[in-house]
């Protein structure tokens, strides 16, 4: 099943629901970063959460940055997701592995540890909106839902999942259901929604059972005036890094540092944290950067 996002409303527009399948892009991240099982689950959940949060933004080019900074052995997570359906991300320690937790599942919470969740929403102009909340469990879903309730004052239920087998990621995605302001005072509706979401056995078992996003949302909200938008959005792992950007970053180092790289290393190597791509800058490239810097300083 292709990686995709679908949007829906229910309860006469009082409920907003979004579902994503991120199996292929999570597998791509696993391969690119050589992730362990628990690191794959942690990054996959966070990428799904980032895409779900970005889906509510309106302006073309809008993006959400999600940083999870805990004291566990994973060493943190950083994800960049866009309204356009692109996402990228990495973890601090991609090889960390832990025994299963008490429920027999990958111990993402143990890998993340205690700490904070940082969210930055960038709509493409002005100052980005940023907010920080304390981690609730380190399991990502609970933490993002806590952020949405406390920082954005939107009652939210979030279910995320990643299943990693011997052959890689076979199921990944999630559902975000939010009660909008027009219905937030309806305590019965909020309670009903919370009960429905908490009754789910998880997200990946539904995908593994062959359920589509439409079927999952129908099972969840079908008797509450569900309206699924006809357009689905394709999702993909994408990084905007380039050799020109690498040269730009090297140029910032200054003439002396560039000259030192030429003498000691005969060039420079840079690796993109987000996608793992390695760039090689030769001594000729660095020499040209020095020439450019000298020309700029003489004008």
- Spatial gap, N to C terminus: 57 Å
Percent range of helical residues: 25-40%
Query: What's the story with the biggest beta sheet?
Result: 6 strands, antiparallel
From the alpha carbons, calculate the radius of gyration and give it in angstroms: 22 Å
3D shape: elongated
Protein name: 33 kDa chaperonin
Keywords: Chaperone, Cytoplasm, Disulfide bond, Redox-active center, Zinc
InterPro entries: Heat_shock_Hsp33 (IPR000397), Heat_shock_Hsp33_C (IPR016154), Heat_shock_Hsp33_N (IPR016153)
Family: Belongs to the HSP33 family.
What does this structure look like?
Strands 1, 2, 8, 9, 10 and 11 form a 6-stranded antiparallel beta sheet that branches. This protein has a 6-stranded mixed beta sheet with strand order 7-6-3-4-5-12, with helices on one face. The radius of gyration is 22 Å and the shape is elongated. It is built from 10 helices and 14 strands. The protein is α+β, with helices and mostly antiparallel strands and 299 residues long. It starts with a strand and ends with a helix. The longest helix is centred in the N-terminal third of the chain and has 18 residues. Helix 1 packs across helix 2 and helix 9 runs antiparallel to helix 10.
């Amino acid at each position: 099943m292709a990686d995709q996002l679908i949007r829906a409303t229910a309860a006469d527009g009082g409920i907003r629901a979004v579902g994503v399948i991120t199996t292929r892009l999570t597998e791509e991240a696993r391969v690119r970063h050589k992730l362990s099982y628990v690191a794959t689950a942690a990054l996959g959940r966070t990428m799904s959460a980032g895409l779900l949060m970005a889906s509510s933004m309106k302006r073309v080019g809008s993006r959400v940055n999600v940083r999870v900074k805990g004291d566990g052995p994973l060493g943190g997570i950083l994800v960049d997701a866009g309204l356009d359906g692109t996402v990228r991300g990495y973890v601090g320690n991609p090889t960390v592995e832990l025994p299963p937790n008490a429920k027999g599942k990958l111990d993402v919470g143990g890998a993340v540890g205690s700490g904070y969740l940082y969210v930055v929403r960038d709509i493409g102009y002005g100052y980005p909106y940023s907010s920080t909340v304390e981690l609730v469990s380190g399991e990502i879903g609970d933490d993002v839902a806590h952020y949405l309730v406390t920082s954005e004052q939107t009652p939210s239920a979030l279910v995320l999942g990643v299943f990693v087998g011997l052959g890689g990621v076979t199921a990944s995605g999630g559902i975000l259901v939010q009660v909008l302001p027009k219905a937030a005072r309806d305590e019965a509706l909020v309670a009903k929604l919370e009960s429905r979401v908490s009754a789910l056995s998880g997200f990946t078992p539904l995908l593994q059972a062959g359920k589509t996003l439409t079927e999952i949302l129908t099972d969840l909200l079908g008797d509450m005036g569900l309206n699924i938008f006809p357009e689905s959005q394709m999702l993909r792992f994408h990084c905007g890094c380039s050799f020109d950007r690498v040269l730009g970053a090297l140029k910032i180092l200054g003439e002396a540092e560039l000259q030192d790289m030429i003498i000691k290393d005969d060039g420079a190597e840079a690796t993109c944290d987000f996608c793992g791509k390695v760039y090689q800058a030769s001594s000729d490239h660095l020499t040209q950067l020095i020439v450019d810097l000298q020309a700029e300083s003489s004008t």
